[in-house]
From TrEMBL:
Residues 1-137 form the HTH marR-type domain. It comes from the Bacteria. GO terms for biological process: response to stress. It comes from Parafrankia soli. This is MarR family transcriptional regulator. GO terms for molecular function: DNA-binding transcription factor activity. Gene3D superfamilies: Winged helix-like DNA-binding domain superfamily/Winged helix DNA-binding domain. SMART domains: HTH_MARR. InterPro entries: HTH_MarR-typ (IPR000835), MarR/SlyA-like (IPR039422), WH-like_DNA-bd_sf (IPR036388), WH_DNA-bd_sf (IPR036390).
Amino acid sequence: MPEATSTTGPIVLLTRLSRLVHRASTPDLLGISLKDMAALAYLRDHARTTQQALTEGLCIDANYCVLLLNDLEAAGLAERRRDPADRRRHLVTMTETGREALERAEQAQESVEDEILAGLSREERAILARLLGQALDGAIRRPNL
């Protein structure tokens, strides 16, 4: 594979890395799909979140979020309940089964990360994660994205 040059922008590099991650992160390896893993990780980090916050946090369309939650509920990995303070909203929580599935998936995902990020030290991986988190937080705060 050709080495990245200094003229290749970070978005192009992220897109290429994302494709490698998606290709390697199969349901057979993870036990769940990568999209389910992403949703469960968000629910772990944001306990009792609203469906709207999940939609925004995952950067997905509201209709797609409904379909994703339908699948998670059908698999017993998450639950939606009406917010008692505002019956128009749904609160979403991860079930214990979902927590166990996420733990197994994240353990399996470590092998994918080790393979794809083999060229980075542990410290560089931590820096990359921090920078990607900052970029994502900044992008999410922009109303037109």
